[in-house]
Amino acid sequence: MGRPTTFQTTSFAILLCLSAGVKAADVTVGTAHAGIGQKATGYLEVPAGVDAATNLPVIVINGAKAGPTLALIAGVHGTEYASSLALAQLAARVEPSELAGTLVILPLLNVASYLQKIVHINPIDQKRVGGYPGKADGTQSERIAYAVYHQVIEKCDHLIDYHGGDLDENLHPYSYWTNTGKPDLDKMSREMLFAFGLRTIIIKQPSASLDSTALKLGKASITVEAGRAGTSDPADIGVLIDGTLNVMRYLKMLDGPATMSVQHPLWISKLTIVKGEQEGIFYPSIVPEAYVHEGMTVGYITDYFGNKIADVTAPVTGVITLVCSVPTMKKGDNVVYIGEIGDDPAGAAGSH
Fold it and tell me: Which of 61, 147, 180, 327 is 20 to 30 A from residue 36's alpha carbon, by CA?
């Protein structure tokens, strides 16, 4: 399908409610139009403004039966490859005839980051994509957020935000759970995480992220991470695909029982980001999931001649969730993330 040339301001149309007991309906997102029991691809168009226009690939899988609308979004950071590949491969596997409800899949939000191999930000405006609901008259990153908010987040019932280690980040899979203080919403998002199956769960407070934005609208949502250092390891991709399919079973979008495989989650109550204080070459001495104690050396920095100029030590006791994966180090760069181990936020009654 060729790239679109027009911008649709009301491009997400659901002709009938997809709630239980109501017939399924045609679904249009951007230029992707899927009839009942169909799969379609197209683009969510972001028009030019103070800078260039962009087109975000979108896949709509409209089930043959009624059910919820689940948004799957990746590529906020364009070089977190495993998550984008996982969604593209997942879309190829899901058959509309077997689906109850609708999948709206955005595998790559930050196209410029992907094409230019730029970590963390959108090179068009040097900003991070986010800050929902964005701005219709803002820079490209803000217009992307605006389009995604109004055409996808507002219209879905649930959302999963996919991330992973960027080109300069090494991590093992983990997830985020946002504590909203709303019991029913928190219970459902928690169960979605248990269905997804990642043992390490980081507790966070509401923010302007994708999942928090959806949660503020009353939509149970989670964030998951797998992939690292610019790789597209089949194991990482498989973790994301399998977890998503199991969440879909939990939501009754696919037949079969959902497996709640996380029996003893490792709850992370606080993340501490350790930053480099010198420019030079970084050498890590730990790996993700290692346990460290306060004062322990987690790496060191040399100058460009190989002379050690600083040890990097852990300011807190906890588990390593992320390590800088490249030698490049300048003052202020992230070196490691350390998660302080906490209690199950639901108490003993909520242990799984």
Answer: 147
Q: What is the DSSP letter of 231?
A: -
Q: How far is CA 323 from CA 13, 62, 154, 218, 228, in A?
A: 43, 40, 35, 34, 10
Q: Report the 10 Å Cβ neighbour count for 348.
A: 7
**CA–CA gap between residue 197 and residue 106 (Å, rounded):** 22
**In which band, very low, low, confident or very high, does the pLDDT at 23 lie, cut at 50, 70 and 90?**
low
Does this model's pTM top 0.70? yes
As a whole number of angstroms, the distance between CA 200 and CA 202 comes to 7
Asked if 173 and 233 touch (Cβ cutoff 8 Å), the reply is no
Query: Any idea what the Cα angle at residue 12 is, between residues 7 and 16, rounded to 5°?
Result: 150
Confidence band (pLDDT; 50, 70, 90) for 345? confident
- Tens of pLDDT, residues 196-245: 999 999 999 888 899 999 999 999 999 999 999 988 899 999 999 999 99
Q: How far is CA 56 from CA 140, 158, 316, in A?
A: 12, 20, 41
Does residue 345 have a cis bond before it (omega within 30 degrees)? Answer: no
Report the distance separating Cα 91 and Cα 65, nearest Å: 17
**CA–CA separation, 24 and 65 (whole Å):** 6
DSSP string across 117-146? T--SSBTTTTB-S-STT--TTS-HHHHHHH
* Sheet strands (E) in 198-256: 200-204, 221-225
Axis-axis angle for helices 234-250, 81-93 (nearest 10):
50
What integer pLDDT is reported at residue 269 of this predicted model? Answer: 95
d(CA 177, CA 198): 11
